[in-house]
Amino acid sequence: MANVRLEDVSKAFKSAVAVDNLTLTIDEGEFFSLLGPSGCGKTTTLRMIGGFEEPSSGRIWLGDEDVSGLPAHKRDVNTVFQSYALFPHLSVAENVAYGLKRQGVAKDEIGPRVEAMLELVDLEGYGQRRTTQLSGGQQQRVALARALVNRPQVLLLDEPLGALDLKLRKQMQLELKRIQSEVGITFIYVTHDQEEAMTMSDRIAVMSAGRLEQVGAPQDVYELPATSFVASFLGASNLLEGEIEGTSGEVTKVRLGVGGTVTLPAGRLTDSEGPVAVGVRPEKLHIQTTNSSEVDRGDNAIEATVVNSTYTGVSTSYECATSDGTRLVVYVQNLERSASPPGAGAKVRLTWDPDHTFAVSKARPEKT
């Protein structure tokens, strides 16, 4: 069941378009992330769902209710911000109970609900402490408990972990996913951190310049990016220009501009002819010296020259260049010590499984 629907929603601030004709459906009980760089429109989208901004055009639905013209306080949503916005003069329990008191919930019900929520966010026994006595992570848990205690239909989270250090942020990512699974409330999460979105989300909407680039499960968006922007924004990616040669059965051949032909599953191409960009993730590539005796298993392959390599402990990153100057990155796990890893200037063959090949649409021109 759809919990949140945006239909042709746009938002302009004077002459600047922040969100451009966005249509999106978010299912009930889903952990959904809006992911993109600064200025892509993700926070504006979240604020329109919450009622803090009014769309310039389009409609927003919460369940079966059109809330496009409703103010924030009349929508069954709560928001958790990066700034915790806690009341320093109130105890932890009083902060959590604040919304219940404003709603007129009976006093004998408030206490048990507050205690249950503090237990959920792993702050049992902290009720009488002042928020100023808590760490950043604990304060964020209080903010989360305060937002959830009212049992909203949807919880909006605007980069809530941005102020935490890396170790605590990773810990809180897992905690947020656990809490969302337990309460079953729809979470809509805004972040610019790709790893954060991949770790927690059931689905991700990647945004750029106010528009949706792709929506899908984390593994689908990463493994099969639909555009060059998505391919480059979610991790490193290697893209090669080519021309579609034709399709035979379930396999399409693409002749690369750098020379040679590669194959990929036919269903990954929207066109049957013409120019195309094919890609492969760095960790999917294998690097061989050109005099290697390894057996060709029908993999895709191109010739290149090692430009430099970087040892990072877990893996070694190789930057290679093709004959036309295209730069490719290869990640090789250091599973065993190599007697003679290829150094700068070495001629190598880069190979990969055709099934690991994706195709992307050309980048759309920016508006002028």
What does this protein structure show overall?
This protein has 368 residues and is of the alpha+beta class. It folds into 2 domains: 2-226, P-loop containing nucleotide triphosphate hydrolases (Rossmann fold, 3-Layer(aba) Sandwich); 236-360, RNA polymerase II/Efflux pump adaptor protein, barrel-sandwich hybrid domain (OB fold (Dihydrolipoamide Acetyltransferase, E2P), Beta Barrel), CATH 2.40.50.100. The protein has 8 helices and 20 strands. It has helices at residues 42-50, 92-102, 107-120, 136-148, 166-183, 194-200, 218-223, 228-233, and strands at residues 2-13, 16-27, 31-35, 57-62, 65-66, 77-81, 154-158, 186-191, 203-208, 211-216, 238-248, 251-256, 261-265, 274-280, 286-289, 300-311, 315-321, 327-333, 347-352, 358-360. The strands form 4 sheets. A 6-stranded mixed sheet has the order 6-7-8-3-9-10, with helices on both faces. Strands 13-12-11-14-20 form a 5-stranded antiparallel sheet. Strands 15-19-16-17-18 form a 5-stranded antiparallel sheet, with no helix packed on it. Strand 11 and strand 12 form a beta hairpin. It is elongated. The two termini are 39 Å apart. Mean pLDDT is 90; it is low at 363-368.
Question: What gyration radius follows from the Cα positions, in whole Å?
Answer: 25 Å
Low-pLDDT parts are: 363-368
Helix content: 10-25%
CATH architecture of the largest domain: 3-Layer(aba) Sandwich
Number of structurally distinct domains: 2
Average pLDDT works out at: 90
Main beta-sheet annotation: 6 strands, mixed
Structural class: alpha+beta
What shape does the CA trace take? Answer: elongated
| Largest beta sheet: strand ordering | 6-7-8-3-9-10
Order of helices and strands: EEEHEEEHHHEHEHEEHHEEEEEEEEEE
How many helical elements?
Answer: 8
> What percent of residues are in strands?
35-45%
Q: What's the level 1 CATH class of the largest domain?
A: Alpha Beta
State the end-to-end CA separation. Answer: 39 Å
CATH topology of the largest domain: Rossmann fold
| Total count of strands | 20
CATH superfamily descriptor of the largest domain: P-loop containing nucleotide triphosphate hydrolases
